[in-house]
Design brief:
Layout: H1 2-68, H2 76-143
Helix pairs in contact: 1-2
Length: 162
Amino acid sequence: MSATSALTGTTMGLQVYQGILSQRAADIEAQSIRDQLSLVRAENEADVARYAEQAKDFKAKQKLAYLKSGVTLSGSPLDILEETTRVSSENISAMRAKAEAKVSEMRGRASASEARGRAALVSGIGNASITGLRQWGRMEGAREPRRDIAANRSIPSLDLGY
């Protein structure tokens, strides 16, 4: 029985260790995703700044073109400049919203990875416990004398109380 017990103990230890390694791998994956979040935010802010600068330059070129052609900046030309500002603001808001949606999705992936890691750890511990209980049950079963059901054929009488 000692070889069986040693093998059972080793199996249990490896099941727990597998759970620990799975949790560690999931934690590393989650941290990698979180690191990418910083890059996504930085890239988005750089894109927004670049777009805002381009919109500002475009508006300045529009204004200059109107002034060079002798058009005053009132009425329709002013409306066009305001429309350019409004559209660029909307585009910047959309860019930020898109980036936030991506960040939110990535956070969800990181959380899911951590949850899978915890589940793997719990599963490893649970599997080790089940392995240990099964082996304990086998050992206990080997210690108890077997009852011969065929030798105990007496039918109990039923007292129906009549």
